[in-house]
Amino acid sequence: MRTDNQEYLRHLRHTASHLMAAAVLELWPETRPAIGPAIENGFYYDFDFPRPVTEEDLAKIEQRMREIVKGWDSVQRLELTGKEAREMFGRNPYKKELIEEFESDGQKLTAYKSGGFADLCEGGHIVNPKAELKHFKLLNLAGAYWRGDEKKKMLTRIYGTAFPSDKELKDYLWQLEEARKRDHRKLGKKLDLFTFSDYVGSGLPIYTPRGALVRRLINEYVEEVQATEGYRQVWTPQIAKAELFKVSGHYDKYKDDMFMVRSHYSEEEFFLKPMNCPQHTQIYASRPRSYRDLPIRMTDFAMLYRDEKPGELSGLSRVRSFSQDDCHVFCRLDQVDEEIDRALSMTKKIMATYGFKYRYRLSVRDKNHPEKYIGDPKEWDMVEEWAEKIMKRNKIDYYVGEGEAAFYAPKMDLMATDALGREWQLSTVQIDMFMPKRFNLEYTDKDGSSKQPVMIHRAIVGSPERFMMILLEHYAGALPVWLSPDQAVVVPVSDKFMDAANDVRQEMSAAGIRTAFDAENKTLSAKIREWTLQKVPYICIIGEKEVSMKGKDKAYVSVRTREGKDLGLKNLYEFINEIKAQIEKKA
Hints:
alpha+beta; 5-stranded antiparallel beta sheet; 30 strands
């Protein structure tokens, strides 16, 4: 779901988090509020409650919020000295810790006050809460460690959302309800696609044969498209020495999100790799390169690992192990436009296959925090302007995402909209001038001089595992025929027709259709219901009528779809051709 004025939404929701804290303190005065920011689809506040609260308390808090906001006709900014801040908030250990941190960093201390409530806060609020803050809803409770550190106290987090209009709020609540019905974690279990194990570890998904098949098909389609465009697969180790990541810049900017690996036989530091690009530079550097060799297009589906915080892990949407349909193109400056156009064209084709609508986000630096990035600011300016020209030349609908750039390059990020109106970042294209420089990558130009190549980073679906999650929720588990683990199931009406049904199953399997067989001793209606819930595209029924019509070169099945539509009696061989045509077209 998108609202045009994102800054206003953040301010509205941030103010709502203050309003919620005020209501909580009126209901339970001994509560110690911690932090309460606006987030992508709403807001939350973390509290240290004097007694446990439950979901049933949310209605009480929300009602008190509606009463309090009637007296909030302004939001007042207060600049505080350290002493004043401690007098106001010093009895709250969480606020005290923040005050000391802000003071040590030389930051100004500010609070924002509405009615009788004041909160230590950096700012970002609406002007008149009484008039503007009307359409909000508290959603759920969760546990959250203070500052995300599992060694610190577990607090109670209350999530809510707020919108400028009642319609937007109702639309979002409908979306949440639909999302609950389509939750990929439930679908993954019901459809037997993936699982998690406490013995293996949180955030480390395990794929069943059915899930591994879907994951492989997603990758194979990307490979089918990119192989025709001169992309060639490489394979790189899952670990590398720390020195690799020190040169690339990941060690300084990304170390906290990387898994360290210990060796019994070496004092060297090793890490599980969080991305492929540093190792791809070493393939490029493994031999001399000429201008005639470029562009070199390397693709890699190797596994990656990132040390995500336990509280942020969620199904396949946030994991610790995943892969990417990764590609790195090493090319000359004069080849960049053509290579990016090639990547955008492939992406357009693949997104059309899955039926996603999308726009692009031009992800640029946050110029107020230059310490987050590597490289020359003037080169950043040049590349950001270049990326914008490419978007305009390709007539791409885009918006600017300040602060969303990678630490080494701006990004052209594809933001896909699913069936529920939610946006997901999938594809990305990045023009990287800095990593080749850090690794001293060169090629010999026409005149014999050494030149530095440009490194283009590209992914189309991003992480196939996360993409599977998006597809499951987008299609509500009813994957397209070509992606379905079982494309059809043959169901005999009774044991009497078991042999005839098995003959049909063999014919379909021999034709390359993934076909299940139901030999259970159940009623026909129970079998149909079960396979409908399993989201199998076609249910092929074999009974008296179908068997009686069988001839030397003829066989028949009665077909139902997973949507409950009765397609009636069909010639088996014609039906097989229909399914094969759907698979070939990826319909």
